TrEMBL record:
Residues 501-733 form the Piwi domain. This is Piwi-domain-containing protein. Pfam families: ArgoL1, ArgoL2, ArgoMid, ArgoN, PAZ, Piwi. Residues 214-325 form the PAZ domain. InterPro entries: ArgoL1, ArgoL2, Argonaute_Mid_dom, Argonaute_N, PAZ_dom, PAZ_dom_sf, Piwi, RNaseH-like_sf. GO terms for molecular function: RNA binding.
Length: 733
């Protein structure tokens, strides 16, 4: 396929009167003028980054003279940077760690290491200055300079606190969750090139750690007990299995010999208590663990509990073990833990801004000897930047509505006195409750359905079947069979007419049941489903029913509303199709599951209705069958409104900066190929827009009039200068 040409948009002129907002960017007020030297580092034997840092710190401290007084910075893997050249081009160093510096595993970690350092390149900072001032492109020198800055600002803090990729985490303000776990506050920091200057972006992060301290306390928490004293009754087999699952692979140290603590990793628990677990001692004599410890060290307080089994079949009583602090909880969080973490991480703007400032104090750039060495200075004040508030769009409802045109207030509005543009007809449907009659009686369901139907009628839908059949299902039973029975009940009630919808009432917010309902209804049975939580059926609320009504109307082929032409002029001028695309990969660790590519596109000139296309593909960030997906969308648009789009506005989600050009070249070519496969001379204008969500940029309104009731910036606030790309067209909102 011929390589396609395209043009990267430059930033257009801004005409609106700007407002001012604070942002979590801190200006780099002084940048190094000298060249930065990059070295490749190889540490052998190979160990995790955190141990690498210990090895490197030891090497750096022991070899000050050999390094010519330079304090190098290191990324924990293979890259080292210095503010001036070292006295050598390449050299090998030997490093010996103190005994006990590394955690015990199945195999004893090494104490001796070899470090090979080789000069890689000199980084000329002039390229970065040219780029920041829109006088040059992003060269390899620029990329390396920015990478070096990131390692410089992270080097010192990474040696003090546990680091996960970019963020570092501190125990300050940690919140206990459950079963020996706690939520830690973290801080993300990143060097960002902006218009005319470098900035440091600092944001909050949060993750889960195991609580440090006596292992016996963690065991009690895992079992939901008030204190270790409640363990004196011993453990049932089920409790032992629960504890073993909760502490497996934890790193611990023993405490019965304070002068010689050893580190271990938990492999499993013994099936017998310490008093019944036998050890082989001298001359093949056997003795139980309780007696062994009583004779050699001290009497055990919990001999009725099982022992820890660590490397080389070492048996340790639980009470002599301490959980080593700063261990991250690596398993997938269940719903309860996930909700607790969300509540912990969610902050109102004022608290978030204060905590970001706390993070800046912990980072302490002003007294960082590594920054000083490289000649870098960072402001202590959040940047104040220019922003704009876009005009609030007007939403059009049906002309017969008492209030047919609505201008949202702070991004919200209600459906009172409003009718949808095109109300769907619902004549064959059923209700499927995944609860028992005791938990949710038929009468309560009928009351909710009656309110829902009334609301649907008021908003312009036509519900001809006002008494849908009610079915029951076990939430952990055969979901497919339950949905098929509900489908048959709806068909029978409608005298053989094909069912249109199943209203599913769920007992909770569990994701598994919801996902199964959607999978089976969409791919096996072929019927629309509308899921609601049972708590909303007890006392039907008009606004909630209205929101459900809008979802049902769209699923049944109706049209809810659209923006008035004055606010979507680019759509009105010429027929324009909007497309949004993304690729979803399986969760980390799942190498067998496929990836899914999805494309959603408008089917009318008002962009008020959409159709979807989906593909299963291999693990790649490129939409491999995009050409056919786009072709389907263009055909659907033409069949729906009889027009060929003259413009394609293509939104692409989930692309990292390093993949921008690769994705753009590949997928833009696929879109053009789709157009020309329909007609050889069909060449609509294509605008390709990349969307990034996890950008860590936060805005804080300065004036009260520019804030909503929660203290956030008003909807429609856009920042497209000051902290954006030096010259390309990007913006934050």
């Amino acid at each position: 396929m011929k390589k396609e040409t395209f043009q990267i948009m430059k930033r257009p002129g801004i005409e609106n009167e700007p407002i001012k907002v604070q942002t979590n960017f801190f200006e780099v007020t002084k940048l190094p003028k000298m060249k930065i030297t990059h070295y490749d580092v190889t540490i052998s034997p190979e160990v995790p980054p955190r141990l690498n840092r210990k090895v490197f710190a030891c090497f750096s401290e022991e070899n000050k003279n050999a390094l010519g007084g330079v304090k190098p910075v290191y990324d924990g893997k293979a890259n080292m940077f210095t503010h001036k050249k070292l006295p050598f081009e390449s050299k090998i160093f030997e490093v010996e760690l103190e005994k006990g510096s590394a955690p015990m595993t199945k195999t004893r970690p090494p104490q001796g290491f070899k470090i090979v350092i080789r000069k890689a390149r000199d980084i000329d900072m002039e390229d970065l200055f040219q780029f920041l001032n829109a006088k040059g492109n992003m060269t390899n020198n620029c990329k390396m300079a920015i990478n070096a800055m990131n390692i410089i600002i992270r080097h010192e803090i990474s040696a003090k606190y546990p680091t996960l990729r970019n963020p570092f985490y501190t125990p300050q303000g940690a919140t206990s969750l459950r079963e020996g776990m706690e939520a830690w506050q973290g801080y993300y920091q990143s060097a960002r090139p902006t218009m005319g200057k470098m900035m440091i972006n600092i944001d909050l992060s949060a993750t889960t750690f195991y609580e440090g301290g006596p292992l016996i306390q963690m065991v009690a928490k895992i079992l939901g007990l008030r204190s270790p004293n409640d363990l004196r009754r011993g453990l049932s087999d089920m409790e032992r299995q629960k504890v073993e699952k909760g502490i497996k692979n934890l790193r611990i140290n023993d405490n019965h010999r304070p002068e010689n603590k050893r580190k271990f990793k938990i492999e499993k628990l013994t099936q017998t208590s310490a008093s019944d677990t036998m050890l082989d001692v001298d001359n093949s004599n056997k003795i139980n663990v309780e007696t062994y410890f009583q004779n050699k060290y001290r009497r055990l307080l919990y001999p009725f509990l099982p022992c820890i089994i660590a490397r080389k079949n070492i048996h340790l009583p639980i009470e002599i073990c301490d959980v080593i602090p700063e261990q991250r909880y690596m398993r997938k969080l269940d719903r309860d833990l996930s909700d607790k973490m969300t509540n912990f991480a969610r902050q109102n703007p004022t608290i978030r801004a204060n905590r970001i400032q706390t993070g800046l104090n912990i980072l302490n750039y002003q007294n960082n000897e590594y920054l000083k060495q490289f000649g870098i200075e960072v402001s202590n004040n959040m940047a104040v930047v220019n922003a704009r508030i876009l005009p609030t769009p007007t939403i059009q409802y049906h002309q017969s509505s008492r209030e047919s045109c609505v201008r949202p207030n702070c991004g919200s509005w209600n459906l009172r006195d409003k009718k949808v543009i095109n109300g769907a007809i619902l004549s064959s449907w059923s209700v499927l409750a995944f609860l028992s009659y005791k938990d949710l009686p038929d009468q309560a369901i009928k009351l909710f359905v009656r309110e829902l139907i009334t609301t649907c009628q008021d908003t312009g839908m036509n519900i001809s079947e006002r008494d849908p059949p009610i079915c029951r299902a076990n939430p952990i039973g055969d979901t497919k069979e339950s949905l098929q029975k509900a489908w048959l009940k709806a068909r029978d009630k409608a005298w053989g007419a094909k069912p249109q919808l199943i209203l599913c009432i769920l007992p909770n917010t569990g994701l598994y049941l919801y996902a199964e309902i959607k999978r089976i209804s969409d791919t096996v049975i072929g019927i629309a489903t509308q899921c609601i939580q049972s708590k909303h059926t007890n006392k039907p609320v008009k606004q909630y029913c209205a929101n459900v009504c809008l979802k049902m109307n769209i699923k049944l082929g109706g049209e809810n509303s659209f923006l008035i032409p004055e606010h979507i002029q680019f759509l009105v001028d010429e027929p324009t199709i909007l497309m949004g695309a993304s690729v979803t990969h399986p969760l980390s660790g799942n190498n067998e599951g496929p990836s899914y590519a999805a494309l959603c596109s408008s089917v009318n000139v008002k962009a008020s209705c959409y159709a979807a296309s989906i593909r299963v593909q291999s693990h790649t960030d490129i939409l491999t069958d995009l050409a056919n997906m786009v072709k389907e969308s263009l055909k659907t648009f033409y069949q729906a409104c009889g027009l060929k789009p003259k413009k394609i506005l293509f939104y692409r989600n989930g692309v990292s900066k390093s993949q921008f050009m690769y994705v753009l070249e590949s997928e833009l070519a696929a879109i053009k190929y789709a157009c020309q496969s329909l007609e050889a001379d069909y060449r609509p204008t294509i605008t390709f827009v990349v969307i990034q969500k996890r950008h860590h940029t936060r805005f804080f309104p300065i004036e009260k009039k520019n804030a909503d009731k929660s203290g956030n910036c008003l909807p429609g606030t856009v920042v497209d200068m000051d902290i954006t790309h030096p010259f390309e067209f990007d913006f934050c909102k």
